[in-house]
Specification:
Pfam families: Acetyltransf_1. This protein has 331 residues and is α+β, with helices and mostly antiparallel strands. 25% of the residues lie in helices and 27% in strands. The longest helix is centred in the first third of the chain and has 21 residues, at 37-57.
């Protein structure tokens, strides 16, 4: 039977400019249900553009985990169903997972502190989950930074992990426990979000001892505190955008502001579904903020989340169901 359970011997290699389509596969195949094709294509284009500019400039690195595409027209994809193997394969290899990381100065998360690197996301597609692919990706990324003479020896690798959160209701989202098993230690917390860190230069024998040292020689890592309530930034009852004139009139009703980073097409897909399901419902006012704009992300202290009537109610990439419940939008 193709892809029987057990550890996989994945091939890991760092992506190069021109690998954008291979990187995209774990993110966009198969496409989500309930999203208008044109809107999904726009989300994919935004992701492709982010990858192209990041890889070409050196501001972004992506490690790929590749496994041979076995015989058979279909494969089980939990949460989706049976999908064609050919839709996932590139030159006989399936990108089973990716890890995306960047210098902290170009972080796609609201994190500050020192000349470190940060993991934006790590994603293993469901057919290959819990089979060692994530560990192989993380090990390869750490090795990549450790062996790069341009990365400072005192640099560390950070990640915004989560405790007890699930993505789309059926799998753990960047779980704290996984990164703890690989030597990361918490340095800051905000609810279920956990900022974690490990030294790049540490070996397995001294990881746990060295992770207790202050990161970056006295330059602590920290999460930018999120704005919990936007009312204080303007007239009570309004939700001003950064730079918006204080006191600007707003219509009455329920105001929903969806924050997402356009590097993630799944987050963009949630926004498109939210718009479609809300329709022209009277009294419901929707706005989106793309936190690819670093000024917006710093202002909110949030990369992905949801404000309802000026209050932060979700602080992660939410599922459509979570958005519906928080915003009071019926099924």
């Amino acid at each position: 039977m193709p892809y029987e359970r057990g550890e996989l011997e994945a091939i890991t290699r760092r992506a190069r400019p021109g690998d954008e389509e291979t990187i995209l596969t774990p993110c966009v195949a198969p496409p989500p249900e309930g999203v208008e094709p044109g809107a999904w294509q726009a989300a994919v284009r935004a992701r492709r553009e982010w990858l192209h500019h990041g890889l070409a400039s050196g501001r972004l690195r992506v490690m790929l985990a590749l496994v041979p595409a076995q015989e058979g027209p279909l494969m089980e994809y939990p949460g989706v169903g049976r999908v064609p193997v050919a839709s996932l394969a590139h030159d006989g290899l399936i990108p089973a997972g990716i890890i995306e990381y960047a210098p902290l100065a170009h972080a796609a998360e609201p994190v500050r502190g020192g000349d470190h690197w940060i993991i934006h996301c790590m994603w293993v597609i469901p057919p290959f989950a819990r089979r060692g692919v994530g560990s192989a990706l993380l090990t390869a990324a750490v090795r990549d930074l450790r062996e790069d003479p341009e990365v400072a020896p005192e640099a560390g690798l950070a990640v915004v992990a989560y405790r007890g959160e699930q993505w789309w209701g059926f799998f753990d989202y960047m779980p704290e426990a996984f990164f703890a098993r690989h030597g990361f230690r918490p340095v800051d917390r905000d609810g279920s979000r956990v900022l974690m860190y490990r030294p790049v230069a540490a070996t397995p024998m001294d990881l746990f001892e060295r992770c207790d040292e202050p990161p970056g020689a006295g330059q602590p890592l920290y999460l930018i505190p999120p704005r919990q309530n936007l009312e204080g930034t303007g007239v009570p009852g309004t939700i001003p955008l950064p730079g918006e004139e204080a006191g600007a009139a707003r219509p009455q009703g329920t105001h929903v502001r969806f924050l997402y980073h356009s590097r993630c097409p799944a987050a963009a897909a949630v926004w498109e579904r939210l718009k479609a399901e809300a329709g022209s419902r009277p009294g419901l006012h929707l706005e989106a903020v793309d936190t690819r704009d670093p000024g917006a992300m710093r202002w909110y202290g949030v990369a992905n989340g949801l404000f309802v009537n000026g209050r932060l109610v979700l602080h992660k990439v939410p599922s459509p169901g979570e958005v519906r419940a928080a915003a009071g939008i019926g099924p």
